[in-house]
Amino acid sequence: MEDYGKGKNTITIDGGYFKDAYGRVLMLRGVNLGGSSKVPSRPNGATWLKDGFYDHRQVSFVGRPFPIEEAEEQFSRLRSWGFTFLRFLVTWEAIEHAGPGLYDREYLDFVRILLEKAAGFGIQVFIDPHQDVWSRFSGGDGAPGWTFELIGMDIRKFQETGAAFTHQEHGDPLPQMIWSTNATKLAAATMFTLFFGGTDFAPLTKIDGISIQEYLQHHYIKAIYQLADRLKDLPNIVGFDTLNEPLPGWIGIKDLTKRYTTVEKGFIPTPFQAMQLGAGIPLNLERWERGVLRPKVVAREVVNPAGKRVWLDGFDPIWQKNGIWKMINGKPVLLQPNHFGYHMGRTVDFNRDYYVPFNNRFATEIRKIQPKTVIFVEKVFNNPGPDWTEDDACDVVYAPHWYDPVVLVMKKFHSWLNYDRGKNKLIIGAQRIKRSFIDQLSRPLRHARQRMGGIPVVIGEVGIAYDLDAGEAYRTGNFSAQEMAWERIMVALEANLHHFTLWNYTADNTNARGDNWNDEDLSIFSRDQQRDPADINSGGRALRPVVRPYPMATAGIPGELSFNAGSKEFIYSFKHAQDLRVPTIIYFPSLHYQDGFKVDISDGEYKIDLERQML
Question: Is the whole model's pTM more than 0.85, yes or no?
Fold first, then answer.
């Protein structure tokens, strides 16, 4: 039997399918590698540590997601678990942290060596230039600190002026998912607005005579180009994500006096209030908390009571400079409440006017060095995915994310209660939840078929919080809640025949600090659960519903797929392609079949490779 995954295994796109060099239809399964790649390794950039945080030009990401000396162990484990397709996290900051045009060659070399080793394990990779709410300094990760300095923002003043909410300044405990509220606060919203639409919405803001939009996009794409160039001859680099979880900033907002947020937590200023706070105007704001059924106001407090400005000396507040508001008789007056919602005689559509053109530009530039690379495109939070036309870039994959919202936000597992964000309604009953999850995960497929020309879909992120119920499993060793949470997700993924990369695999995860970023703890592996380093499965968390049999390569068209983690019954149907003279390959994990298994087939013959866990 062939050593599937090594040698002749180039991934291509044919209609809505991924295919290998033999013409077989692939099912791609893997992980995001890894959660702590969002923060520097030197000095330790874990978000709960404040020391050295603001020395943003003197950092290194070498060693993320793990040191070279761990490569054989980590890739062996991933391969053994059937995860042969990686979404490999890098950040713009990791490449260009020292300043515009100053690239960290040591880091680029490190990534090259690591991914070359991955190729030796038959592991395919797509590169994810990762970001959350723009940058570490605005409560997330991604962009270098100097991007704020370009426009005169003082990153040391973000917390007290309400421009951002950071773990480093707030301290422990960090309210769950509050980092995401930075999406509409001044720092991140301003930078995303400038990155995607600065030419239109901030025409007076230029760097060295160049539009701020052009300057930022040029440097971002050129930084990723450096990595593409470094990896161009590796056989296992499938493609590049354009940008993780892109945000529109304030682009498309029609009324700057209304609140917009991702989750109701803490202070949620309107865009106009955010502009005022950054200009040094104290405001009395509501503080919100998310309840089980609905959000509620829990207090009112003055934000920025000292009246500090977020703008460095010599810089005017950027949105005043561009004529959106000004002070009249000592009071802030909003002059253009619909500044971001209407432009050049028509209503703004972020996807059409800004996101798709950026994706096309990214694809064009990266393909100058890697002509056949596949481009992975995501969706904007709370927006539909983009439309795709024949004029847009080809060889594109739709790569949205999906999470169980109750498990992620509330850190609770309820077998009978959940929520459908798309329909904005509660789901009650285990069977209704199962049907809803299957339906929710079918929506990206419908979107890709109806509005993106039938391109393939990869669920780029899907995962659960492991620290449910305040980390009870770490004290008891009972991960049954996590197993049940995973099982219903995996069933829904299988029902839709989805490709996916799980969020996530963090090699340095700990029970105490999770993935080392904003108190998130979603890694399927942790050293704290590794009782026997000699056992390849040791360290896996709630592993049985995650490591499942699946068709790695099908000599034909896939039909239906299911696996019952309890009975261990695996069922797969497909229509065989008569012109293919190569076998269909099924991965079967020894984790489930240590005592062997019985195979029933309707036609043909089969062979079992126990060592490689292949049927």
Answer: yes
